[in-house]
Amino acid sequence: MGTRARREHPDIDESMWTAIDAVIADNRGKPGSIITVLRESQEIAGYLPVELINYISMHMNLPVSEVFGVASFYSLFSMKPKGRHTVRMCLGTACYVKGVKEAMARITNTYQVEEGETSEDRRFSLEGVRCLGACGLAPVMVIGGDTYGDISADKIIDILDKYE
Ligand code: FES
Description:
The chain is of the alpha+beta class. The protein folds into two domains: about 15-75, no CATH class; about 85-160, 3-Layer(aba) Sandwich (Glutaredoxin). The chain is about 45% helix and about 10% strand. It is built from seven helices and four strands, in the order H-H-H-H-E-H-H-E-E-E-H. The protein has a four-stranded mixed β-sheet, covered by helices on one side. A hairpin with a 2-residue loop joins strand 3 (about 140-145) and strand 4. It starts with 13 loop residues before the first helix and ends with a helix. The model has no long low-confidence stretch (mean pLDDT about 95). FE2/S2 (inorganic) cluster binds near residues 134 and 135.
């Protein structure tokens, strides 16, 4: 009797596990279906924690290393939880020159979130991105569907405080 991947995780409730089981059942044995399974599982669970990857590999009868390889290769997959709000800071040249790094440092210090990470309280995920094509507004920040231009380190906390 092999070891069973444990079907438990604080971020995945019973109904999510049931939905994930259905995705696995639909795709098991189909060549190349692991990307579909990971994508749909991430939609259900919000991200792909290690325990979920183990579970999927076991039930898809695939080596864990292979599933990990796929999950880490594609940027669409996240193995870390996302915050309620994703803050994207443009790190393009125009924004850089106009002080986006200082603004970003202010966010890191105020909300305890590093670039590429999510704050403990899952309020914010902070990402650095390439030129957003709005250089005239530099420095530029995007939160969800909202774009903010000419953000300075001094203004930025007032803006972020509106996002609970
Ligand atoms: S460099 Fe930031 S929008 Fe272009």
